[in-house]
Amino acid sequence: MGHTLKEYTERLEVLAAEKGLDYYPVDFGAVPPNFMMEIEVYGLPIRMLHWSFGVRYIYHLIQRRMGHSRIFEVVYPGNPGHAYLADTNSLAENILVTAHVLGHADFSKNNALFKRSQEQVGYHIVEQAAAHAKYIDELVMRYGRVRVEQVLDAALALEQHIDMQKPLVRKKYPTEREKKGDPREENVFRERFEKLPGENPPKTENAEQKRLPTPPNPERDLLWFVANYGPETMDWEQDIFLMVREESFYFKPIFDCQIMNEGWASYWHARLMREADFLPNDIYVDAVRAHSAVVRPYAGEKEAALNLNPYHVGFALWEHIFKEYGEKDAFRVRANDDDFSFVRNYLTKDLADALKLFIYKEKEDGSIIVVDSDIGDIHEHILKKKYNFGCPRVYADRIHEDGSLELVHDHKTDGRGLDPNYAAHVLKYMHTLWRRPIVLQTIDDKKKTKTISCP
Q1: What are the residue ranges spanned by the domains of the chain?
Q2: Tens digit of pLDDT for each residue in 381-393?
Q3: pTM value?
C-alpha cells in the first residue's frame, strides 16, 4: 500500500532537520493551476484589486499556453510559511516540490535580508494582504472605484521606490536644526562671551534659518515621502500608499535573492531526494525527471540558454560552494549574502564557461552572435536588472514654498537611463495625489540635462 504525500512530507521534514535545515512551520495546500497562476501574478493569494494585475495575468497565460512556463509551487515566507502546490502535480512532483519548499523555508528564516524584512513587516503577510484588500473594498464603497483606483495607480507606479536602509515605521523629519552640545553649558558660555568688552553681540539664527528644508536630505523612499508630505493627502490615501509600501518591503528580499533562494531550494530538493532512502524507486526516478525540468539551463522550449534560468545558475553555484568550501561556509553564505555578492564572489570564469554563460546580440536577420564572455561583464549583465529593485534611482530633492515637488534622477550612480515617456506617466499618476506641480531632473540620451514636468 503506497504512502500519502502527507506521510512523505513528515519523513522529509525529519530528514531536512537532520541535515541542518531550520525553518518555521509550513502550511501546505493543493490548488488548481489557474489559482496558482493568479497568486503568482498578484504576488499573494489575496491582494488589493488593480487593473495592472490583469495585464500581467494575460501575459502569463499566453506564456503558459506557448509552453514557456509551468508553475509547480508558490511559496510565501512567514511564521507559519504558506506553500501552494498545483493539484495537477503527480505524487513524485509534489514530493520534490515539498523538499524544494523546505529549502525555501530554511532560506527565508535564516537569510539576513529576509529576517530584517519579516521582523519589520511581520510574519503573517498573507493575512495582512487579505486585510489590505478588504480595506480597499471598503474604500471603493465609500469613495468610488475611479477615485480609489487613481490612488492605487500612483502607489503601484512607485511600489519599487522604497529605501530598505530606513525602517518600515519611520518618524517624520525634524522641523528645526538640532542644537549640538549641552544647552545649559552653551547658555553659560554665551552669557560670558556677551559680557566681553569691545565685542559685537553674536548673530543668532532667525526662524527661517532654523527651519530645515523638506526633505532635509535626498529621500529615496518615495512611497513614504508622498504619503507623509503630500500637501493635500487625505488619511485614506496615505493608508493606501503605506499598505503598498509594506508589501514592497516584503517583496524586496525575494527580488534581491532570487538566484540564491531558488538555487538553495533546488540544491536541497536534489540532496533530500538523493538521501531519502524511504522513497520507492519509481517515485525517485520520476522526481529526478522533474528536477531536471526545473534546473535545465534554458527557460523556454528552445534548446538555447538565451534566457537566464535562476534555478539552473543558483543550483550550479550552490553545488560549487558545497564542494569547494564545505557545508559550514555554505550555510554562512546563505545567511549573509544576496544575489550581488553571491554572483560576484562565486560565479567564476570556469563555472561560467561550464554553464555556457555569455552576452549575446540578436542581428537583424534573427541570428545570434556572442559579443562578450568576460566574467566581470557577465556578472554585471546578470545583475544589472536587479539594481535598486529594478527601477531608476530617483529621489525627492525639495518641496518648494508653493508646494511643488522637485525630483532628481541620480543618473551618475544609477548606471541606467530613464524612459522619458514612462517617467511622464508616473509623474501624472503622482500628480493626482500630490495635487501640485512636479518636476523631474534627468538627462537625455545625449547626456544633456532634461526636465520632465507635470502638469
Answers
A1: 5-111+257-385, 125-165+213-254+392-454
A2: 889 888 988 899 9
A3: 0.85
